[in-house]
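Hi support team,

I'm filing this because I wasn't sure whether my run with S-adenosylmethionine finished correctly. The job status page said complete, but I'd like someone to confirm that the output block is well-formed before I use it downstream. Pasting the exact inputs I used:
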Amino acid sequence: MGTDYVHGYTPAETRRLTDQAGTLADLLHGGTTYPPGSRVLEAGCGVGAQTVQLVTRSPAIELVSIDISEESLAQAKARVAALAEVDFRLLDLHELPDKKFDHVFVCFVLEHLADPVAALVRLRGLLKPGGTITVIEGDHGSAFFHPRSPRAQAVIDCLVDLQAAAGGDSLIGRRLQPLLEQAGYADVRAEPRTVYADQNLPHLVDGFTRKTFIAMVESVRERAVAAGLLTAAEWAAGIRDLSRSAEPGGTFHYTFFKGVGRT
Ligand SMILES: C[S@@+](CC[C@H](N)C(=O)[O-])C[C@H]1O[C@@H](n2cnc3c(N)ncnc32)[C@H](O)[C@@H]1O
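And here is everything the job wrote out:
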């Protein structure tokens, strides 16, 4: 993935990941706690937005958080410094040394990888017998909204197509269960975690519809226009229409998937 990370390593993306983690904390992390003393690996920690949740919900774990972006790791370190001691490492998850962990946590990383099964197999090799993996991914095909608009759908499709062209899969959520099975995990369970936002849920309209989802789509504007997927005018019209789902009378729906397996 490296520098071809479709959302980019920018201040806007840092803000987006932070808003996403804060707004969706209970939805995504509900059911995920690790006993004190557990050795936990967070693969692809980014700017530490989920790391904060991990150390808050499971204090006294021994957490190793890795990423391939030095800049993101520096931000993660600063963000978590006052909360807990985390062993942050600049490492590719495919090249981790054979140290064993009780649990592995992966959030929004597989969608960017060309071979997610290979990554899951590698992570399985790092788990102690009986150890667990928890994987959280989105699925942009689960986004539907009111008012319905083909122009808004077209900007979302640009993100899906650009991520696929970069070797990723933004529709990966629906595949979590088979991916974990293929990678050899036992007792695999996958479940949808749905976000629904309307004007009676203003924190979700702002934190999710606007600052997470629409912000994510907007992050690929330059690439989409440069690739000729849409004209600048079509892009602007699509974003305008999509933004109506965050206005009074609009609604927005999205489903994340959370999968758990063990060795
Ligand atoms: C969308 S961000 C998610 C970050 C964090 N998990 C979160 O939910 O806020 C994906 C992160 O995965 C990292 N990443 C991608 N491929 C990786 C690899 N092979 N090994 C380790 N980290 C990787 C990227 O650098 C990026 O920071």
